[in-house]
Design brief:
mainly alpha; Glycerol uptake facilitator protein; 10 helices; 0% strand; globular; MIP; cell membrane; MIP_CS; transmembrane helix; transport
Length: 256
């Protein structure tokens, strides 16, 4: 029973976990609100609107991640949370709670956008993601690839063994989201985030091709996490860091 509780993470729940969940809810709400409302406040010309939308999403993620990173790790995305779960960096119950509050924050953001907006957005309805100039399977591949890039960047910037990084982690992750939108917006509407797609889809009652925005980002996130964790990360540096931390904890324990 104790092993089961440890596996799902029941022993982790404390006031700190609630602080993390609040941070994830608030962060995802702000990210989806700012990003989605940028798609309805611009012109109906898709070509000229891609760049502002891309920077709205990217800069929003970068700014919000700076605020909530210390509290929750700034996942703001089920694809990131599930990717960490798969490589053992997150417990099952906490991951499920993260996904729940991320989707709740996205739904609240989409609801407010729907109430204050004054018409359709860029030939789609109030931020609902769907394939535009490509087919369903092409859109799926694009979602996998651009989410793979975003999660790979997230993993590298969150790697505690990387002492060669001198840039702000949230800024670089935000730039990867901007790149994903610049590349994929006219193809798949570049979600990279199941919660970001779920909120507008639920509020507008439009789930056409919605499965793409769960299967694609989650697949890309899992592949990126596994790839970084087992192929790219310096395992020897990670072992040395863990050894130093274990040694420091042993020294801090008072002798009887």
């Amino acid at each position: 029973m104790n092993n089961f509780e440890e596996y799902i993470g029941l022993n982790e729940f404390s006031i700190e976990v609630w602080r993390m969940l609040i941070a994830e809810f608030l962060g995802t709400f702000l990210y989806v609100f700012i990003g989605v409302i940028s798609t309805i406040s611009l012109s109906q010309n898709l070509m000229t609107s891609v760049v502002p939308v891309a920077f709205a999403f990217g800069l929003a993620l970068s700014s919000i991640s700076h605020v909530v990173n210390r509290a929750s790790g700034a996942h703001l995305n089920p694809a990131v949370s599930i990717g960490r779960l798969v490589v053992g960096q997150m417990k099952l119950l906490r991951c499920l709670c993260y996904i729940l509050v991320q989707c709740a924050g996205a739904c609240l953001a989409a609801f407010l956008v729907d109430k204050i907006s004054m018409g359709p957005s860029l030939a789609i309805r109030h931020g609902v993601t769907r394939p535009l100039y490509v087919g369903v399977w092409e859109a799926l591949v694009i979602e996998i690839v651009i989410t793979f890039l975003m999660v790979l960047v997230y993993k590298s910037m969150a790697d505690p063994t990387r002492d060669d990084l001198h840039l702000s982690g949230p800024l670089v992750v935000g730039l990867s989201v901007t790149a994903g939108h610049l590349v994929g917006y006219l193809c798949s509407t570049s979600s990279m985030n199941p919660a970001r797609s779920f909120g507008p889809a639920l509020v507008n009652g439009n789930f056409e091709d919605h499965w793409i925005y769960w299967v694609g980002p989650i697949s890309g996130g899992i592949i990126a996490s596994v790839c970084y964790h087992f192929c790219i990360q310096d395992r020897e540096a990670l072992r040395r860091r863990r050894s130093r931390r274990s040694s420091a904890r042993r020294k801090s324990v008072p002798k009887a």
